[in-house]
């Protein structure tokens, strides 16, 4: 579905990186109490929704410690797909978690376009599964 964009993917990736510098507050806040939109009935952030969910909390912590945020954001595609788009594409089943964890560890290309995700050889598959579980929770 991203075929028309493949040709300009390099440009998009660069633009995304530029945005990423200033725009990561929604994924990185330690305590998510300070969402910029202060309207009372505004949509809850994922951090608020899942603050008591151990899978979410440990997955988020692992993702933050790793290099994932340099290519992924929750709400917006940068180099890699937005986590919320990944969550929309895959149901959170054991099978999908395992498949995606293997792709994170071994690298992946062709699922979202021609930009590859590098392998993460230092990452255990168990940790990758916790990260993927977190990613697949990012749907409303
Ligand atoms: C250098 C950039 C980069 C880094 C770092 C990176 N990713 Fe990715 N990621 C990508 C790209 C590009 C894709 C799309 C690959 C494809 O089309 O198959 C992707 C795809 C994914 C997918 C979806 C795979 C699929 O089969 O649909 C998941 C889940 C994911 N990344 C999680 C992570 C996690 C977790 C980390 C940190 C450990 C991480 N990524 C680090 C660039 C990156």
TrEMBL record:
Residue span, Cytochrome c domain: 54-139
Organism domain of life: Bacteria
Signal peptide (from-to): 1-20
Coiled coil region boundaries: none
UniProt entry keywords in alphabetical sequence: Electron transport, Heme, Iron, Metal-binding, Signal, Transport
Keyword Heme attached: yes
Protein's UniProt keywords contain NAD: no
The protein's name: Cytochrome C
């Amino acid at each position: 579905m991203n075929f028309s964009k493949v040709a300009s993917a390099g440009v998009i990736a660069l633009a995304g990186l530029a945005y990423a510098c200033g725009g990561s507050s929604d994924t990185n806040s330690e305590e998510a109490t300070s969402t910029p939109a202060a309207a009372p009935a505004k949509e809850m952030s994922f951090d608020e929704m899942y603050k008591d969910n151990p899978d979410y909390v440990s997955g988020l912590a692992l993702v933050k410690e790793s290099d994932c945020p340099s290519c992924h954001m929750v709400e917006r595609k940068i180099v890699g797909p937005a986590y919320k788009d990944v969550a929309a594409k895959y149901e959170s089943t054991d099978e999908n978690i395992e498949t995606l964890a293997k792709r994170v560890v071994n690298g992946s290309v062709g699922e979202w376009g021609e930009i590859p995700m590098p392998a993460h050889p230092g990452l255990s598959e168990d940790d990758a599964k916790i990260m993927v579980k977190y990613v697949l929770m990012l749907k409303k």
